[in-house]
Amino acid sequence: MSNSKSLLDTDVLVIGAGIAGHTAALSASEAGARVLLIEKGETFGGTSAVSGGGFAFAGTDEQKAHGIDDDEEQFRASLWEASSGKADPVLIDAFIAEQLATYRWMVEQGVQFELYRVGILDKVDRMHSTGQGAAVTVLHQNYVKRDRALYLARAAANRLVTNGAGCVVGATIDHDGADRTVHASRGVVLTTGGFNRSRELLEIYAPDWAGAMKLGGRHNTGDGLRMASALGAAHADMGYVEASFGGTLNRYPEIDENPDDEPMLLLPFSNGAIIVNKTGRRFINEGLNYKQISQELLKQPDGIAFQLFDAKLMAQARRDLTVMNLEGALEQGYVRKADTIAALAAAIGVDVAALEDTVRRYNAAATIGDMEPEFGRLISDFGGIGPCIDTGPFYAIPTGNVLTTTYCGLKVDPEMNVRTVYGEPIAALYAAGEVIGGFHGAGYYSASAMAKAAVFGRIAGRAAAGNAA
Ligand SMILES: Cc1cc2nc3c(=O)[nH]c(=O)nc-3n(C[C@H](O)[C@H](O)[C@H](O)COP(=O)(O)OP(=O)(O)OC[C@H]3O[C@@H](n4cnc5c(N)ncnc54)[C@H](O)[C@@H]3O)c2cc1C
To answer: 362 alpha carbon to ligand 1 midpoint, in Å?
Structure first.
């Protein structure tokens, strides 16, 4: 602080301009506060700008239009089950109480949702797709139009500032190489995202994944976690970091991590592709989610697999949906293509007879019931293409695990007020989004990260704005 050269004054300082930062900043502004939103990178967005953009909400207009009967109690049960009963129920309650209002607020902001239908028999479709980066962009455009709402890029917070009573009153920041101190009279909201770009923190909290491929905001180095920890903040869910299955191995057959590699996250398995290992055999129920599959992949030869599908599924590719941008991936050379299964096997270096046998057995099983017996995959018509992999050309994506998110972090209460290791609130310090822990517990419910960031960001922004100046 001694070399700080200038002082910026605001009511609420929001640190980190992803989806949580924008919902916090907008809500604080709507509540009448002067707001400064700062971003470490050149541009806003963080992981939220590269994410698939799926938001899990229940009771929406899109669900109703598809005749889907859903409500808060079913959603609560799904979140709890996904967390393996390890989430903080208080945070799930806080989320459930605000999720529909947040959805409606985002619609009013101009965010467009489209229900992403997978149509698996025992699942309620709740993933509302917004397209890559679209939601955070809409919110950013709205935020910068507001009075007394400032945005500063290339401004990295490095320490929180407290007064003599331990109340957070601002932060020191590095803006374009200059040290500054921001004074925030009502509070500070940490929305700095996760820490998957910090090798040091990964070695401590998730050593199994420290060497995995990484995807997401390049500046997500756990700064919020460090800053709040320096004030005695407690942590939650630190033992539950998991990578996701679905990262493209761009240089396959080379598979060692290269720090410059930026994989794509592709999930055609959730639309009907099968997953085979290097021996050409399936090893898992592809109806599981990418976090569950990532664990099983660790046990497979070289920790790699291939997502295998046919021309019918390729025809469903969507460039606007990150995880289904199969054409883009094909153009980049990340997808192998062949007219027959035998030729595809040769192209990916897998035993021809084994792969042909796998596909034949899967197709036979998929046509006789609702569940294939070998791994228990529920069979649907996968959006009208049918379950069989039988129409050439055929495609295979060399795929590995990729660390997209960390999902553990600061312990907060239902107002998003950060708590100390003694359970006390840190006055005027709030946090939301991927920097917090406690919401996902030991498992991840698909598309709940963006929804959580939006819902909790709004709560945090409102709470900070509501503090007496
Ligand atoms: C490829 C991919 C696909 C995904 N798809 C989905 C999906 O479809 N649905 C879903 O729910 N989740 C998805 N996720 C996860 C989800 O996108 C993230 O959990 C979510 O975007 C986190 O939002 P956030 O606002 O907390 O953090 P971010 O969006 O990462 O924002 C944090 C911001 O803080 C900035 N920052 C960091 N440190 C500082 C500092 N010291 N000072 C100032 N600024 C700082 C960062 O630069 C960044 O811009 C996906 C993730 C990836 C990588």
So the answer is: 37
pLDDT at 469: 65
CA distances from 288 to 105, 116, 283 (A): 32, 17, 12
Closest-lying ligand 1 atom to the alpha carbon of residue 217: 30
Beta bridge partners, 334, equal none
For 104, the token pair is 């409606």
One DSSP character per residue, 328-383 reads HHHHHT-SEEESSHHHHHHHHT--HHHHHHHHHHHHHHHTSSSB-TTT-PBP--GG
Residue 217 Cα to ligand 1 middle (Å): 6
**How open is the CA angle 448-449-450, to the nearest 5 degrees?**
95
Can you tell me the ipTM of this complex?
0.99
Q: Which atom of ligand 1 is nearest to the CA of 22?
A: 25
The ligand 1 site (C-beta within 6 Å) comprises 15-21, 38-41, 45-48, 50-54, 156-157, 191-193, 215-217, 219-220, 223, 265, 404-405, 433-434, 447-450, 453
CA 182 to CA 290: how far, in whole Å?
41
Q: How many whole angstroms from 438 Cα to the centroid of ligand 1?
A: 17
The vertex-137 CA angle with 132 and 142, nearest 5°, equals: 155
Backbone φ and ψ of 252, nearest 5°: -50, 135
In tens, the pLDDT along 108-151 reads: 999 999 998 765 545 789 999 998 899 999 999 999 999 999 99
Is 416 within 8 Å of 466 (Cβ atoms)?
no
The domains found in the chain, sorted by start residue, are 7-240+406-466 (3.50.50.60), 244-403 (3.90.700.10)
The DSSP bridge partners found for residue 378 are 371
